[in-house]
C-alpha cells in the first residue's frame, strides 16, 4: 500500500532527518550525548517561544504541558477564565477543574478571533486569577490576537497562559514582549517533530507567582523541580525523569532545521501555504471557517456548507489520493474539514495534490 501523507493537525509529516534521529539513538537519558541534545533543544526553543526564560521539555504531550502550567499558576479555589473558541478550551477546563480550580468559559464568536474588549469587561465583572486561551485554535484554524489579549490581562494584573500546542513554529511568538506568563506546546504539530514531548515556557515574571502558590503541585508536575534538575546537572542528567531519548533527538533535529531555515522565512512559508490553500478552496466555491485576517498559518478549517459530509471526503482522500486530512469537531464534525499545512507540508507543492483531491471529490 502506498504511504499515506498526513495533512492532519498533529501528528504532522516530519522530515527524513527528524525520523532518522528518532530511531538513530539507542542512547541513555543520561550522559553527554543526550544532555547536549536536550539542553540545545531547550535553548533553541527560546526564540521560537520568544522568551529568554526557562523552557521545560517533559515526556508527554500538549495536554500535560497545559496541566503543568495550570498547576504552576493556579491555587485550589481560584478562578481561571478560558476564552472558549473551540474544542481545546474544554480540554483545558478539565485540567483547571482537575487541579481544584474553577473554570469560567467566555464564548468567542464563531469564525472570529477572541475580542480584547470582551475580555476586558469580563475581567471587570469578577475576580479572575488566570486567563487562558489558545494561540491557534486547532479545531477551527483560528489565530488569536495574543498580544492584544495578553495586554488586557496584564493591565488587570492577571497572569496569562497561552496554549500554543499547534501554533508554535507556524506563527511568530513573542511571549516576553507580549506579556504572556506561561506558554505551552507539544513536539508533534507546528514544530514538525514526532509526538512524545510537552513543552512549557516560563517567563521570568512567572516565578514570583509560582513561588506564592499554596496548593499541592504534584511531584512530576512541579515545574520548579524540572528547572532545578536542569541547573543541577546540565551536562549529565538534565531531565527529572527518563525521557523518550529518540524523541528528544528528533525534536533537537527539527529545531536545528528550523534554525537553518530561519524563523521569519519559516513563518512566511506557512503564511504563503495558508493563502494558497484558502484561495484554492474559495476558488472551488467552499467557505472558510475563520474570517480573513485571523486564519492560522498552520491549519485551515473549511465548511462543507451542507453539500457533503466531511467524513466522506476524508475517506475518499485516503482511499484514492493517499492523503489524510481531518474532519471537524463536536457538533460541526460533518460540516467542516481541516487541512494542516505545518512543517514540510507548508508549501504549495505539498498542497497541490490536496487541492486536486478536493476538486476531484467535488466533481
Ligand atoms: C493538540 C492540541 C492539544 C493537545 O495536545 P496533545 O499533545 O494531544 O496532548 C492542546 N491544545 C491545542 C491547541 C492542540 O492543538
Automatic annotation (TrEMBL):
<dbReference type="GO" id="GO:0008483">
    <property type="term" value="F:transaminase activity"/>
</dbReference>
<dbReference type="InterPro" id="IPR015424">
    <property type="entry name" value="PyrdxlP-dep_Trfase"/>
</dbReference>
<dbReference type="InterPro" id="IPR015422">
    <property type="entry name" value="PyrdxlP-dep_Trfase_small"/>
</dbReference>
<dbReference type="InterPro" id="IPR024169">
    <property type="entry name" value="SP_NH2Trfase/AEP_transaminase"/>
</dbReference>
<dbReference type="InterPro" id="IPR000192">
    <property type="entry name" value="Aminotrans_V_dom"/>
</dbReference>
<feature type="domain" description="Aminotransferase class V">
    <location>
        <begin position="21"/>
        <end position="330"/>
    </location>
</feature>
<protein>
    <submittedName>
        <fullName>Aminotransferase class V-fold PLP-dependent enzyme</fullName>
    </submittedName>
</protein>
<keyword id="KW-0663">Pyridoxal phosphate</keyword>
<keyword id="KW-0032">Aminotransferase</keyword>
<dbReference type="Pfam" id="PF00266">
    <property type="entry name" value="Aminotran_5"/>
</dbReference>
<dbReference type="InterPro" id="IPR015421">
    <property type="entry name" value="PyrdxlP-dep_Trfase_major"/>
</dbReference>
<comment type="similarity">
    <text>Belongs to the class-V pyridoxal-phosphate-dependent aminotransferase family.</text>
</comment>
<keyword id="KW-0808">Transferase</keyword>
